[in-house]
Design brief:
Elements: E1 3-5, E2 11-13, H1 19-27, E3 33-36, H2 44-48, E4 66-70, E5 73-82, E6 90-97
Antiparallel strand pairs: 1-2, 3-4, 4-5, 5-6
Length: about 100
């Protein structure tokens, strides 16, 4: 196993020596996950004139898949689903996984 010294004089294992412990550490790293229903563009004047009940059209249609975005990268697409009988909570059912670097 290869050891390295850090600038602070501490010694540690290289990446190849991390094994299961390193894998577990990486799996606990938090990432930002967003579920994007759609987007639109509008002038500031229109944005400032919005009132309660205003409807903002998005670039997606009802039934279209939504983007699942991790750290600003689209990683999958999914469908909104109701989680209970009363439809008071919803979730996302993953329908497709995108290729790395592609949308």
């Amino acid at each position: 196993m290869t050891h390295v010294s850090t600038a602070g004089g501490q010694e540690g294992k290289t990446a190849e020596g991390w094994g299961v412990r390193g894998h577990d550490a990486v799996m606990r790293i938090p990432v930002s996950v967003r579920f994007v229903l759609g987007a639109t563009r509008m002038p500031v004047a229109k944005l400032m004139s919005l009132t309660r009940g205003a409807i903002i059209p998005l670039d997606r249609k009802v039934g279209d898949l939504i983007d699942i975005v991790v750290n600003d990268q689209v990683v999958a697409r999914g469908e909104i689903v109701a989680l209970d009988e009363e439809a008071t909570r919803f979730g996302i059912s993953v329908r497709e996984v995108t290729q790395p670097g592609g949308e």
